[in-house]
Design goal:
By secondary structure, the protein is α+β, with helices and mostly antiparallel strands. It contains 4 helices and 6 strands. Helix 1 packs antiparallel against helix 3 and helix 3 packs antiparallel against helix 4.
Amino acid sequence: MKIDVHKQMEEKMVRTMEYLKQELHSLRTGRANPSLLDRIVVNYYGTDTPLNQLATVSAPESRMLMIQPYDKSAMSAIEKAILTSDLSLNPNNDGKVIRLNLPMLTEENRRDLTKVAKKIGEDQKVAIRNERRAANDILKKMEKDKECTEDELKQYEKIVQEITDKYIKEIDETIDAKTVEIMEV
């Protein structure tokens, strides 16, 4: 029973880490990365559809993304979705593919992106700490209901803290790596 609390908590923390990595992938760095467009949603025949379900996105060059729609009639909708996104990119449509040239990031843009990455990391640390609190609440209830002793409770809480520390450290390392990647010229 007590092990289930730790296991459930760790599963939720793993999902939090996956979400963090997904969010960081969509942050723009100096290099073209197809995952930059993962958050783009296109109004395709009245339905909001993720771009990656409507087209193949590739990075043929270090500063260019190429979008090849499966349905050529979706090109204008894809262009509009990119223009209205927060990416500040200008699509070039040649009738077959859409090219996105990524401009060089200025030092100020890089600093702003590192702030965004750190904010995402802090939000995920809060999520991890909330999982710790929830697990500890369950353990305290178990002790109150006489399902475990006070000594066992302390031991289980120690395990919860060790798991929490492990994921907080992993978040810090992930954010540090992303910061270095963003600041590369």
